[in-house]
Amino acid sequence: MPLSPNHRRDKSPTLPISKKLLKLVGKTNAEFKLIGEGDKVLVGLSGGKDSLALVHLLKHIQRHAPFSFEFEACTVKYGMPDEHYTTLTQHCKQYGIKHTVYDTNIFEISHDAIRENSSFCSYFSRMRRGALYSFAQEGGFTKVALGHHFDDTVESFFMNMFYNGSLRALAPIYKTSRGFHLIRPMIQVRESQLRGFVEDNHLSVIGDEACPAMLKDVKMPHARAATKAWLAEMEGEKKDLFKMLRASFKHIHDDTFLDPTRWDRDDLEAKSDALGVDTL
Q1: What CATH number is associated with residue 58?
Q2: What b/e readout covers 134-165, taking b as 16+ CB neighbours within 10 angstroms?
Q3: By residue range, what is the domain housing residue 172?
Q4: Single pTM value for the model
Q5: What is the mean pLDDT of each successive set of 10 residues along the chain, which is 280 residues long?
Q6: Which has the closest alpha carbon to 144: 178, 110, 101, 113?
Q7: What is the number of domains present in the chain?
């Protein structure tokens, strides 16, 4: 049953968003069928530029799309000393965005839970995602939206290649083990576009200071920063780099890699039959 279109009568203020950004997110939603009629979407809102842009983009889509859906934002509170989200809460209230600060004890249990030589950032990221999933499950959400952009997926692709020996990126949508879908509505948007949105609207953002790892006396991870710097250097030499990478991500010839399970080898099947060999 379609939702009541009360959001179309919402009189809360909105922020200006460039037509190019709106068009790209709208195209992504249509191309990958991310949000549709009757969906209930939870947005992970850290207060950084990416998640802030996402809630305002969804607010615009909600008002103008030819389908009805609900969305609200959730900020996971780690339980750190002096951890406050008052400004973020007030911002959401000002723009008519339903927002919840979800209390957890992630910081407390991290003292004993993190293994030696493991990544603090990875740990807190996993725990934050788990808390967000729990909130989504409790609230009956059909989708969880994250603010990853195209720079994120390109960086992840090369990090997986260089550090993990695998070809893997960030999917626009996938079904989680909890039963709902995770979506990335800004997966084709450049980071510079989101930075421009925040700067143009003079938004106050939350940065790395909100990460619990900043309170730990450990060496910070360098892989993503190094990969980002490497890509920036290459883009400086080849301005169409990310345009070609986007095209590459949509034209995958996976049978050309060194993975026999992806090949079409009817010649082997024919030889096996001729020799009477059981290929199983």
Answers
A1: 3.40.50.620
A2: ebbeeeebbbbbbbbbbbbbbbbbbbeeeeee
A3: 6-241
A4: 0.89
A5: 57 94 98 98 97 98 96 94 91 97 87 62 86 96 98 97 96 96 98 97 83 60 89 97 97 94 82 55
A6: 178
A7: 1
